[in-house]
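Q: Structure for this?
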Amino acid sequence: MSALEPNEVFRLAMALGLAPLVYGLARQLVFPGARWPFGIMYGAFAVGYAMTVLEDLAAPGLFNVFQHACSTVGAIAFLMAARAVYVEMMKSTRGAS
Amino acid sequence: MNLALGAFDIVSLTAFAVALYFLFRTPSGSTSPFSTGAKAFLVAAAVVYILVMLNDALDRMGWMSPIEPFEDSIELMFMPLVLVSVYSLLVRQKFNDARRINEGLLHTGDMMIRAIESTPAGTVWIDTEGHIAFANPAAREMLDLEGTATDEETGHPDWIVRTGSSVAGRSSISPDFSKLVTREPLFDVQVIVEWPSGWRRRFSVNTAPTLSPGGRIEGVIASFLDKEPWRVLQAHGASGSRRGHAAPEVVPPHVDDEGGT
C-alpha cells in the first residue's frame, strides 16, 4: 500500500468536490428530465475517478471492474441527460413555432 | 474479469455514441437556453470520454502517442466540460426567464396605463401630503389641472376641498386631498372642490392605498366620478370658469335630449 501523491490528492478532491456542485446546478435546471441524470452521472464519475486514484490502496483488479462499472453508469446517465435536453428543446421549439 | 471490462466499455461507448447523436440533433441558438457553446462543451465532453475508452485500441495503432503525456489530464477534463455546459444552461435559462417576466410586466404596465388614460373616470395618485402626483386626462379635465400627467406641479394651491363625513366619521375642509390618504380603502366619499372663482364641483371618490415594500403608505389611487356638474353650476350661479375664463356650456342631459325646453 503506497501513500497518495499530491497530484492524486488533487484529482481526488476535484472529482469529489465537483460532484455536489454540478448536482446543485442540475437541480435548478428547468429541464426536469435532465436533473437526476446529471446528478447520477457526476456521482458515478466522481466515484470512478476516486477508484482510479485509490486503486493502489487495495486489490487493483476489483477496483478496476468497479471503476468501469461506475463509468458505464455515468455514460448511461449522460445519455439520459442528453436525451432529456433534446426532448425539452424540441418541445420548446415546437411551442415557439 | 476481462469479459466484464469489455462489456462495460461497449455499453459505455454505445451510450456516448447515442448521446452524441442526441446532442447534434438538439436545436440550439442565441435565444435558446441550450446555446451553441453549451452544446459544444457537452459534445467535447462526450468525445473526451470516447477517446479515453478507445485509448488502448488507439494506442496500438500509434495514434495516442502525441497526446500520451496529457492522457490523464484529458480524462479529467470531462467533469469541467460538463460543469461549464450545465452552468451555461442554467444561466441562460435564468436570463431568459427574467427577460420573459420583464416583457410581461412591461406589457401589463402598458395595458394599465392605456386603461387609465381612456377611462372616463378621473384617476389620480395622491401622495401622503395630499398633493396630486399623477392625473389621467379625465381627472385633468375634471379638476382643471395644468400641465401634463407627469408634471410634479399638479393641483391648485388655492383650492378648498370639502370632504364628506364618511372619512373618519366627520367632514373636513382643507386645501388639498390629504384627508383621502388613509390606510384603508374608501368608497363613495363625497368631495366638493371649490375654486376661488366660485366654481364648485362635487365628486364621488373611491380610493385604494399604495404601500411601499415595507408596508408604509406611499399615497392613494383615487377615482373621481363627477356628480351632476350642471346642477352645481346653476345652484351657485357661477358665471366664469374655474380660472376666470368663459364658462364652458354645461347643459343638463334631459334638456339636450328633448331638443330644448
